[in-house]
Amino acid sequence: MGTRAKACIVGAFEHPTRKAEDKSLAQLHAEVAKGALDDAGLSKHDVDGYFCDTEAPGLGPLSMVDYLGLKVRHMDNTDTGGSAYLLHVAHAAQAISAGKCRVALITLAGRPRSAGQSAEPRVDYNVPDMPFEMPYGPTVVNTYGMCAMRHMHEFGTTSEQLAWIKVAASHHAQHNPHATLRKPVTVDEVLASPMISDPLHRLDCCVVSDGGGALVVASTDVARELKRPAVRVIGSGEAAKHPSGGRVDLSFSAAAWAGRQAFDEAGVEPSDIQYASIYDSFTITVLMQLEDLGFCAKGQGGRFVADANLISGVGRLPFNTDGGGLCNNHPSNRGGMTKVIEAVRQLRGEAHPAVQVKGCALALASGMGGWMGSRHGSGVLILERTH
């Protein structure tokens, strides 16, 4: 059974902090949970489904259900990195459609800025291919740099074109009082920033921030009883892509498969989308998803993003109007949550007036988790404003 018209996002909340030295991880989960429930006009006593990833404290949902004082009949701790929270929304909609719950609470929290992150790659010998990759020294940024270099080689993409993605994000972030980086930047400034992993510069990389967010997904019956505007989940897709034992094709991501699932279920096409939240761990992550989701032809992403085409009110496809992971917030390496939250704001007409897409009725959110140059997962949602 499809998710179309079966479930709605009725609550959304993004934590305002970007540095939480005085808060525990569990406390952040609790604060975003309360924020989303208050936004929906519901209480914790209405919640009968709970979703989080495996980075939640203790035993994930088991520990957090206890900490939050919930009584639930359905739980999910799917973890596919940055795409996890898009999958959580899809799985919540599916659980509601199947009668497993009526009100699902989804929470994310992270403290990577306060707690710090190791620069050394961790060898997980439970991942079959990883011991063979580690001698070559892969890290998150150099595997994405490898994708960018390959895209440049195959399609003639330039660093200037990638820089336009950061420029667009920064133009939006200046209107977000909570954004980590609010200053608009130019293409030249992106190119002048230090090289991190050729061809990616520092300003091609996302911010590292604390914080989190939460969503409430409910049945359409519950949504009709609430005073807040609801956002219908009308299409979803998920997919995984991996090195296939060395048969690696870096020219596309798993979004090519997940996106097609979501569009087919929703019964719409990329040309129908009025706003897009695109996972932006790096500028190349955005460019490849835009191609793979069908917003432009393969190899044409560089031309598509250039000349302000992603800036709201100016370009063809407004994207990441909160500033995205490149400028606003990227908590716990799980930036997919914020992608859904900003899509909800746009569909409700609650984005900042300077970046609000007029008459926004149909939006897409896309998340990418793992390493795009290696094993990774994709989650895509198509969301529709209710009338």
Which keywords apply here?
globular; single chain; two-stranded antiparallel sheet; alpha/beta; 387 residues; 14 helices; nine-stranded mixed beta sheet
Describe this entry's structure for a reader:
The protein is globular. The mean pLDDT is 93. Helices cover 34% and strands 18% of the residues. The strands form 2 sheets. A 9-stranded mixed β-sheet has the order 3-2-4-7-1-8-11-10-9, sandwiched between helices. It has a two-stranded antiparallel sheet with strand order 5-6. With 387 residues, it is of the alpha/beta class. Helix 7 crosses helix 11. It is built from 14 helices and 11 strands.
Question: Given the helix and strand composition, which structural class is it?
Answer: alpha/beta
Largest sheet, in brief, is: 9 strands, mixed
How many strands appear in the DSSP assignment?
11
Assembly form of the protein: single chain
* N-to-C CA distance: 23 Å
Describe the global form.
globular
Contiguous uncertain segments of 5+ residues: none
List SSEs in N-to-C order.
EHEHEHEHHHHHEEEHEHEHHHHEE
Provide the residue-averaged pLDDT. Answer: 93
Radius of gyration: 19 Å
The percent range for strand residues is 15-25%
Sheet with the most strands: spatial strand order:
3-2-4-7-1-8-11-10-9
